[in-house]
Amino acid sequence: MDTILNWINENSGLILHYGIQAVIALVIFLLGGRVAKFCSNLTEKAFDKKKVDKAVGSFVSSIVYAIVFMATILMALSQIGIETTSFIAILGAAGLAVGLALQGSLSNFASGVLIILLRPFKSGDYVEAGGKAGTVKKIEIFSTELRTPDNKVIIMPNSKIMSDSIINYSRESTRRIDLVIGVGYDADLRKAKEVLKSVLDQESRILKDPAYNVSVSELADSSVNFIVRPWVNSGDYWPTYWSLIENIKIALDDADITIPFPQMDVHLHKQD
């Protein structure tokens, strides 16, 4: 015990020096984390003021946070006497090894950059990508956040999005509704066509230009099929779709026009 106390007394100045340096390094680390968060939020707010897509602002702010936080760590290590140049070299070598081990993460990062540059979608767009569909909420460094119509959150790796086809349902201002309506072979086709047109004419959300199309498309096995193709604003697609399905069924019933459905006849033979 006396030996330890003697060593502390002999090296008190050195201990005090490194103690102060360690405290300063800790303060730098804690403040640096706050500064990184502040810079990230400031970047996102700046993008919002410029009315830049929120997804882009979120992506760039994530990169800013990572850069500032890494610089903070290097400053804290330098404060306690660690040579940062050699440390950076070590980090580079370690980064190469980690990069080889985490090729998927690097692929996600590269795909995130491509999403920002190519902009196949923006925040608020309803898209189908990587086998999932939802509204784009955020584009992060490694992933993109989608929200489904039933309020589920999907975190999709960026590489999966860019490796497959992307369907953007929101990019164009208008969409076409494609319906196939079958009527019986005994139905009056002219009357059926007029009934379908009258339903479309009564739907106020259907656009006049381009005009809708109602035509016989197929003489199927058990029905004569009409294609019904009106155009609507993208935001009105699903409400109009559901309304047309209901109103067409009601109108055909009122006109005594049957819609065929699969049937099975079972014949029973009595054996003596």
What's the structural blueprint in terms of helices and strands?
Elements: H1 2-10, H2 12-49, H3 54-79, H4 84-101, H5 103-118, E1 126-129, E2 132-139, E3 143-147, E4 153-157, H6 158-162, E5 166-168, E6 174-176, E7 179-183, H7 189-202, E8 213-219, E9 224-229, E10 231-233, H8 237-254
Antiparallel strand pairs: 1-2, 1-5, 2-3, 3-4, 6-10, 7-9, 8-9
Helix pairs in contact: 2-3, 4-5, 7-8
For the structure shown, list the relevant keywords.
alpha+beta; transport; 53% helix; LSM_dom_sf; MS_channel_1st; 3-stranded antiparallel beta sheet; transmembrane; 272 residues; MscS_beta-dom_sf
Task: Profile the largest sheet.
Answer: 5 strands, antiparallel
Oligomer: single chain
Strand order of the largest sheet: 4-3-2-1-5
Query: Total strand count, please?
Result: 10
Average pLDDT score: 81
Percent of residues in β-strands = 15-25%
User: With helices defined by DSSP (H or I, 4 residues minimum), what is the helix count?
Assistant: 8
- Which runs of at least 5 residues are low in confidence (pLDDT < 50)? none
Radius of gyration: 33 Å
Structural class: alpha+beta
Spell the H/E element sequence: HHHHHEEEEHEEEHEEEH
Q: Give the helix proportion (percent range).
A: 40-55%
Global outline? elongated
Distance between the termini: 113 Å
Domain Mechanosensitive ion channel MscS: 105-171
Subunit structure: Homoheptamer.
Family: Belongs to the MscS (TC 1.A.23) family.
Keywords: Cell inner membrane, Cell membrane, Ion channel, Ion transport, Membrane, Transmembrane, Transmembrane helix, Transport
